[in-house]
Amino acid sequence: MTGASEIHPTIPVLVFPGSNDDRDAQLALERLGASAPRVWHTDEVLPPGTAAVVLPGGFSYGDYLRCGAIARFSPIMRAVAAFAGNGGLVLGICNGFQILTEAGLLPGALRPNETLSFVCRDTPLRLVRTDTPFTSRCIDEQHLTIPVKHGDGCWFADDDLLAEVEANDQVVLRYAQGCNPNGAVADVAGVVNADGNVFGLMPHPEHAVDPLLGSTDGGLLLGSLVDAARLSLAAVV
Amino acid sequence: MLVRPKPGILDPQGQAVEGSLRHLGFDVVHAHVGRLVEVELETDDREEALAQLERMCEELLANPLIESYAIELERV
Q1: How far is A20 from chain B (nearest CA, A)?
Q2: Among all residues of A, which ones are annotated catalytic?
Q3: pLDDT 10s digits, A154-179
Q4: Most exposed among A91, A135, A188, B45, judged by the fewest C-beta atoms under 10 Å?
Q5: What is the average per-residue pLDDT within A67-92?
């Protein structure tokens, strides 16, 4: 019998024109045991055996119009929407989060930071849910430190949408009290969709997987995703 | 098409512009910053043009959660 850790699930990292964290995401996922091919946005299908998909950070299409608004029309996004619709695991980091909200796969919108300043720093976070495929390696209420680096990270939902998101327990990650770097409503740093298989967050877990860089907390999130991807493959076999 | 932040939505860019205008001595109560998108259409049919422009705003140019839009038509 093959041990679970010997399975290297395929977790493609999408590359849009202007993505710039795709290599870090690839490196982090590979160090955590995944096979993480980078997939160009004009591809119309995901690689065979795809067990999860990552949309990386960056400035797709120069952030023209609104961050993420143009990337959602990339051919690969149709495949991502179908994959997510079938329960496939999708993770959007920073610009990837923006793309997923613009594509209607996640609730809310990402607006310019309240201060209008680009923020780039380690950020204390409070984990709200551990019962997701993206957070299973964490413990309840765990405090994580993961860097943010964005100009448009102010998650917004109007009162009705926020009430719905909170009622469905869709907030997975919040900025620690007093550490909200962008003015996000209800300190939201990351949300899942109602089905719980699509997750978007502004902090960059792929930049926090090596002690040399100060924190390995990002590895808890990405490692959880690799675990879940392995499980989904085991379920198929 | 004029796309702008919905009323009541925090508009930090508008606030920055508002503050700067006050610095210059203008008695500005509120400033909001939006986006102007100009397109030229083939059609001569006003109703059809309006319908197309509305769809453009709904499907791409404005994010209905945070932005409202207004349309102006002009024959060229």
Answers
A1: 24
A2: 94, 204, 206
A3: 999 999 999 999 999 999 999 999 99
A4: B45
A5: 96
Among chain B residues, CA nearest to A117: B12
Chain A residues in contact with B9 (beta carbon < 8 A) = 111, 156
pLDDT class of A5 with cuts at 50, 70, 90: low
Question: Measured between CB atoms, does B60 come within 8 Å of chain A?
Answer: yes
Half-sphere exposure for A75 (CA within 13 Å, toward CB): 8
Domains, chain A, in order of start with CATH, read: 8-236 (3.40.50.880)
- Give the residue extent of every domain in chain B: 2-70
pLDDT tens, position by position, B50-75: 999 999 999 999 999 999 999 999 98
Q: Which phi and psi angles does A211 have, rounded to 5°?
A: -55, -25
Task: Give the domain B2-70 fold.
Answer: Mth169; Chain: A , (3.30.1280)
Q: Looking at chain A from residue 136 to 155, which residues have their Cβ under 8 Å from any Cβ of chain B?
A: 154
- CA-nearest of A53, A36, A35 to A45 is A53
* Whole-number Å distance between alpha carbons of A131 and B38: 47
CB A200 within 8 A of CB A101: yes
Task: Name every chain B residue with its beta carbon within 8 A of the beta carbon of A116.
Answer: 12-13, 16
